[in-house]
Amino acid sequence: MTSDDSQTDQWEERFAGALKALVRARGGKGDLGALAELSRYTRGQIPTFGAASSLLAVLPDWVKEKQMADVFLTAGLFAEHREHSVTHRSLGASLGAYRAQKHGDVDSCPTDTRLKVLLGSPRAGLDHHLRQAITLLDGISVNYAQLLRDVLNWENTRFRYDGLTYAESLRLSWLRDYDRMARTAYARSVSLSGDEETS
After folding, report:
1. What's this model's pTM, rounded to 2 decimal places?
2. Residues 112, 99: contact at Cβ < 8 Å?
3. Which residues contact 45 (CB under 8 A, 6 or more apart)?
4. Is the Cβ–Cβ distance between 65 and 88 less than 8 Å?
5. What's the confidence (pLDDT) of residue 7?
6. 155, 123 in Cβ contact below 8 A?
């Protein structure tokens, strides 16, 4: 079973909620020990039960060790970049917002290359490329529930109703979201700067 088979369950949203609770824990100071352990998972260290227990509690029964690797990768990325929001549909949209902010309306930039490398990466190399992408996004939120769904389906070769595999569909979604967000965010920034000049 994949994340897409359990859309009615929405456990990925509960997972994102559990991550946000770690940031709000201890009177708003955050559970820094648990967050540090989760962050170290992106470098190969398994978190202790204490650090992982709130996340393990929201996992459905069908999640096995392979999917737990995806869960803890996503949790580790969150621990390094604690800005979750459903504002952006995918990591592609978050990167598109970064492109507009950092590079404006140029024809080509390093963020385009980063997205291309991400989209071409097999699951075995995805951890490294996701870590690199996440470090760029200071001040830009990531939809961690959707990121988890996407990582879970990264190599899903089952066909959807539209003839695409789940893996193809999510990559095309990232590309579309990247383009849309880059264009609309840049157009918005130009409009706002124009308003400031006329006022």
Report:
1. 0.88
2. yes
3. 37
4. no
5. 45
6. yes
Whether 2 contacts 60, CB under 8 Å: no
Report the alpha-carbon distance of residue 170 to residue 176 in Å, rounded.
10
**Which two tokens mark 96?**
């598109």
Query: Are the C-beta atoms of residues 107 and 89 closer than 8 Å to each other?
Result: no
Report the half-sphere exposure of 187 (CA within 13 A, side-chain side). Answer: 6
Residue with token string 């918005």: 188
Per-residue pLDDT tens digits for 172-197: 999 999 999 998 866 666 665 555 55
Other CB atoms within 10 A of residue 63 CB = 18
**pLDDT value, residue 105:** 82
DSSP state of 139: T
- Mean pLDDT in residue range 76-103: 94
| Terminal-residue alpha carbon distance, the chain | 56
